[in-house]
Amino acid sequence: MEPESELAPLREQIDDVDQAVLDLLARRLQLVAQVGEIKGRHGLPIYAPERERVMIGARRAQAEARGVPGDLIEDILRRCMREAYAHEKNMGFTQQAPDLGPAVVVGGAGGMGAMWVRMLGLSGYQVRVLDLPQSHRSAELLDGAGLVVIAVPIHDTVEVIEALPPLPQDCLLVDLTSVKTAPLEAMLRVHPGPVLGLHPMFGPDVDSFAKQVVACCAGRDAEASAWLVEQIRLWGARVHEVSAEDHDAAMGLIQVLRHFSTFAYGSHLAHEDRGLADLLALSSPIYRLELVMVGRLFAQSPDLYYDIITASSASLELIERYHERFGQALQLVRRGDREEFLREFATIGEWFGSYAQRFLDESTSLLAHADATR
Amino acid sequence: MEPESELAPLREQIDDVDQAVLDLLARRLQLVAQVGEIKGRHGLPIYAPERERVMIGARRAQAEARGVPGDLIEDILRRCMREAYAHEKNMGFTQQAPDLGPAVVVGGAGGMGAMWVRMLGLSGYQVRVLDLPQSHRSAELLDGAGLVVIAVPIHDTVEVIEALPPLPQDCLLVDLTSVKTAPLEAMLRVHPGPVLGLHPMFGPDVDSFAKQVVACCAGRDAEASAWLVEQIRLWGARVHEVSAEDHDAAMGLIQVLRHFSTFAYGSHLAHEDRGLADLLALSSPIYRLELVMVGRLFAQSPDLYYDIITASSASLELIERYHERFGQALQLVRRGDREEFLREFATIGEWFGSYAQRFLDESTSLLAHADATR
């Protein structure tokens, strides 16, 4: 028998199964939309980790009992839940401070600013946008404000804060900059009322706030900003409280050094000029992902990255120390010192502790997904 | 009405839908196993890109026609197909050279060696393992060999090749090392018969060969190794032909520099010692992934990485040039030269061309998956 005539009926049956799956997905999306509507009406967070955990555990057990891999059903359910979060992001959220005066987003036309304008609007607040073209109207737009959010480029933040007209005494003043010490000091200087420093650890390109992180640095009168923190949690984000100093030091490592290294690495690739198509042809998923993580930077705003990299002199010193350590490591392999390399490798491995293996597992699972989607 | 009493019936319905999905998945796995059995019997490759493309296109169109996002059904189907590949990897493959003498894997007890022992065995070859404990029997084990695969650590490869006893004239000699020029030269020197250099661009931890890349460098008598190339394709891998020189130059960028930078970066993190748990608490998915890609190295073999990094002096020079360019870029931001930074950023962006945006999209979609699976 020809293989095609043996395969054709099986493929038809697989297609039938897939269509039935499609029917169920459509039904599932409808049900989830109803859940979202109820949650929105009662002010419940869209992300319910405990319900997720229980539900996935039950489905895994059922799957494994009948020979279906637990990971398969878990991955599929999580993919469905992600769709649900993305849907629910536009559904409206319970307003945590119903009596608040207008919320003014300074820089509300930028990517991050626009995102906050939208989220505040979906949560029932009266939102005003104050951008350069409206700056002659700033006193008017800020009149009676209950919340002012500064969402302007890093290098402009302190200047914009200092140029603010006096705000209502009980107005909450917040900034969204990726450094926290200087903007927080400036806000405390110009405004005697409640002050909060926020740093959304994501760009305006994310699907929703769900599972993202917002760093939160106390300024003045934490009670007066509790509603906003709760509102952000309702949007699905994890709010992580941290001092401005610790935040800025961590950002040096997490953000600044990473972006700078990526810039330098991209520069090196471009100047070595080996032909990206050839490099990709030789790249298995793990190496492709490395190239993807470099190349993605250069589809984004150079000004933003310049601002992030140069925002603090402490971060530049951190980069300098990295450059020196890199040179030392290079000396080490240059002189063929295997023993010292192994010792240093072990030291680093100890620092990562059990995370090293967890990260290996996590990336293996993620790469398996990357394989599957190409 | 209490939210819980409104939500409970909807959640029950969602659970019913999910159980029905589970039934369909179990059915789908059975059908796919039958397809795999037929493919194996007829020697068809397990990975059928054209059938995949058509099938996914059809399902996307149906989904979108009824308001289900096309990406949702595509992601779920690809996840199912990945499961199928992982299942099929143990199913047996059509033997491409049924009359071949025994296949001997030198270093067959190591991770990569053991993988080839398994794959050759699943494809019907008589496989022998030659490791250090058997080295006194090497003449006996190599007697009559139709294929010899060298799968030993990089720094031992040339030495092991040079220590081989004379092989049968028509025996195919192959190595799997991550550098290609020196091993290929050594194989051509010691063996007058067919020779092929291979570099599987993945570790022994992958699910299967499906969608992985094997670099392939011609040695001698390409016709005599055509069956092996075809066999590897049957296992699901993409075989990419490249000269040994181009391969080694590309590996400098893809593999050596990447591994070395990661080592240096890990060293920097460990010495700055900011507390990994704190860094993770502040990391949104994109930064978490950056940390994951660094930390995963340190759960792996330090000897392997030392060998890869130091295998070629050309690669060490490449690292040195990167270190210099890094220093120049650092000067640039140190002196606050925004204009020059923007110019260089644009130059790099041009080098990446349309890949920059593709990479951004690819990583966004991958990260959305990472969000969903935590």
Number of helices of chain A: 15
> Which strands sit side by side, in order, in the main sheet of chain A?
2-1-3-4-5-6-7
Strand proportion of chain A:
5-15%
- CATH C-level class of the largest domain in chain A: Alpha Beta
- In terms of per-residue confidence, which ranges of chain A show pLDDT below 50 for 5 or more consecutive residues? none
**Major sheet of chain A, described briefly?**
7 strands, mixed
Q: Which radius of gyration of chain A do the C-alpha atoms yield?
A: 25 Å
User: Greatest chain-chain interface?
Assistant: A-B, 159 and 160 residues
Number of strands of chain A: 7
Oligomeric category: homodimer
Helix content of chain A: 55-70%
The number of domains of chain A is 3
Shape of chain A: globular
Question: What order do the SSEs of chain A take from the amino end to the carboxyl end, as H and E?
Answer: HHHEHEHEHEHEEHEHHHHHHH
Q: Structural class per helix/strand content of chain A?
A: alpha/beta
CATH topology of the largest domain in chain A: Rossmann fold
C-alpha termini separation of chain A:
33 Å
Helix-strand layout with pairing:
2 copies of one chain form a homodimer.
Chain A: H1 3-42, H2 49-65, H3 70-88, E1 103-106, H4 111-122, E2 127-130, H5 138-142, E3 147-150, H6 154-162, E4 172-175, H7 181-190, E5 195-200, E6 213-220, H8 226-234, E7 238-241, H9 244-272, H10 276-281, H11 285-295, H12 302-310, H13 313-334, H14 338-352, H15 355-372
Parallel strand pairs in A: 1-2, 1-3, 3-4, 4-5, 6-7
Antiparallel strand pairs in A: 5-6
Helix pairs in contact in A: 1-3, 2-3, 6-7, 9-12, 9-13
